[in-house]
Amino acid sequence: MSYQEYAHLRNGGRNSRNRAPGADVTWQQKRAQRMAQATNAGSSGSDERPYVGSHISFSAPRPVHIPPQRTVSHDPPVSHKYHSPSSSLSTTSLSPSNSASQKGLYNLKRRTAAAAQEPLPPSLPKEKGSDPVPERRPDLVDVPLPWRPTYLQRRVLFAFLTLFITLGVALQAVLVHSNRTPGLGPADRPTALRYAFQMLPVAILLLVAGAWHRVDYQARSSAPWMRMARGASDAERTLLLDYVSMLRPVAVAKAVRNQDVIVACAITVSLLLHCAVVVSTALVAPKLLTVTDQAAQIKVTSQFRPGPGLPLDGTGLSLAYVAGLQEGNMSLPDGVASRFAYQRFRSGTLKDVGAQIGATVETFNPNLSCESATLSVGGIRASQQAQQLDVTFAAPGCSIATTVSGNGLLSAANEATYFLSIGRGGCGGSTALENQRIVVVFGTINIDMGSSGAGNTSVAVNGSVPQSTQLICIPDYTIKDMDLVKDDVSLVANKLGSSRPQSRRLDGVRPWDVVEGIFGSYAQAGRLFHHELSTNDSLPGFLPARVVADPLGRFVFGLRRLERGTLGTPNDYFNTATLASLVSGYFQHHASILALASLSSPADIPAKGTSTVTEDCLAAVPAAVHSVTVLLGVCVLLSITMIALVPAKGFLPRNPGTLMDTAALLGHSRPLLQALRGTGAADTATLWKRLGGAYFYTGVESYEQPNASGNGYFKIFGGPLRPNAMSPEYAESGGGGGPWPQQPWMQ
């Protein structure tokens, strides 16, 4: 049957009805004549057939038996010339058959051709430019083909591009929200909900990577078809190319060498998405964060009460606090800072350790303003148990006469004694509260011990105060609003409030009432400490120098050592500013504790404040978010490249995804099928021997009859195929073939 007749048979339908009634009869007569000639030529019997009938598949390799001596037939030998795709004469069957009815067809001519067949030589390495690339045939029909890969269409790739951009923007938005809130929610939520938050990005990226796998697969499987549709290319990059069976990194390298940009981009995006899935497991993680609530509900539990005058601290409670702090036996109570007192407040909803709450509350701020004064000594009286100095402090507008007494002012010969005395008195002897002042003196004293009285007898003695610094101080206090932040232990921070910056005083509470409370607490010192506070012993912080102080002065030096860790040298306190800082600091400290003990009363006042809690929250991890965003950004660039390069129209008449569809596509590529004849069980090397060095491309060839319906034959064209690659019936088996993942050693 001629190739034109075969083509007419394919059309069928309407064309077959237009045939002459005797067309089938004529074809059958011609076929019977050829069969009879073949039977006569091969009458020597079926025993000379190169293989015997068997139930084995026709594609299995069989040995070719060639008699050592054979009679040469008078028939002309079979020609091995190259058959072009448009050749119209062919009597060769595309598939050998084991049917008994076909035995007579294997005549002496075919056996002679098989005997004369030489073994296929190995494919030699091609030199650049050794084989000219064939040009496309000019008679091919330029018709639109309907099929192209679904996932390689521009609208699909654009959808993936949009998805990548959306995911990148969403990740950055989540990171910004996590930093502002802060966190994405508490980490102590139910386990299932917590893992849902952590695994949600992983699940989304897994779905995206799974969807992109179809793009990856279709790009790899369609690469040979797309290259042949563009033009002639060698077999290594067309028919013999298999990206699907390669590992992805190997396939990327191969695609780059072959300049298959679409394949390289598709596989690279797939690898990047897999990396993004791995990194996304760390996108959301528990983290200790500081959570602040600006509208927290708090309660103020104390207030400063006005009164007809501050009652004296007859119990000595404030002094007990001062002594306990200096001895390290207690810490500042709630409601007192180092230099001021404040309204106590709390939050009933804040139970976490380390939580901080803030509120704007009233604070009690004592102050002591001091100025330098002169000192004049009127006389010194002394006994073995006590010493007394009659002195006068003088400053502009105020003169105060008072006494400085103690029991440690005596000193040995050639030894200087430093002393600190803090007292009180009225300017010009006035008893009015507004004229009362605190007087302070720090100096050295020399007393002639030999002239002092015996026992308790006090007599006038010779002595002097060679060096001294003295102050006259005015007490005061104010009530101010202040923004405070505290934890469950102590005050953390404070800042002057802006809502009510003006200061005020409590009704009925005068500044001198605070001073009287401080001095009054020392009246209970003997009861509190089970002994009178001695002024005879030198303060150990100044040794070897001898420094003595009255009871109040000893606590003043004690606070300085508590806060700074050292007292320095005695000569430091001859500086007026240093001495003023020493005394005013202690006054603020003791007065604040006194205000808590005597001026504060319980209250229950609701208010709004702030709460700051350090808790375990789910938060976005910046490093992981930025890493995944970068990976998605690279995917965006590669997707844009693919959109620009994918075919805009179809390049195949049907989907080559199934065996039947592939067979239908190759049905009219007769030279290629002849070259592959008998290689069903052959190894890859045999295929390379058959097709190596040839170039292939696809196209549509028009039908022979002008009135035939349809676009024409879809074929794979190419060449040059070696003559010995056109006619072998069978090839040696390559053993256990197949992709390497299906090899027994892999399984």
Structure description:
This protein has 747 residues and is of the alpha+beta class. The protein has three domains: 3-143 and 654-742, no CATH class; 150-283 and 621-645; 305-339 and 367-478 and 503-600, no CATH class. 33% of the residues lie in helices and 22% in strands. The protein is built from 17 helices and 16 strands. Strand 5 and strand 6 form a beta hairpin. Helix 12 (551-564) packs across helix 13. The longest helix is centred in the N-terminal third of the chain and has 40 residues, at 191-230. Mean pLDDT is 78; it is low at 1-28, 38-130 and 726-733.
Features:
3 domains; 747 residues; single chain; three-stranded antiparallel β-sheet; disordered N terminus; alpha+beta; rod-shaped
Task: Explain briefly what this protein structure is.
Residues 1-139, 727-747 are annotated as: Disordered. It contains 17 helices and 16 strands. By secondary structure, it is an alpha+beta fold.
Strand content: 15-25%
Give the strand tally. Answer: 16
State the helix count.
Answer: 17
Structural class by SSE content: alpha+beta
Distance between the ends: 48 Å
Helix content: 25-40%
The global form is rod-shaped
The radius of gyration is 55 Å
Strand count, sense and barrel status of the largest sheet are:
13 strands, mixed
Whole-number total of structural domains: 3
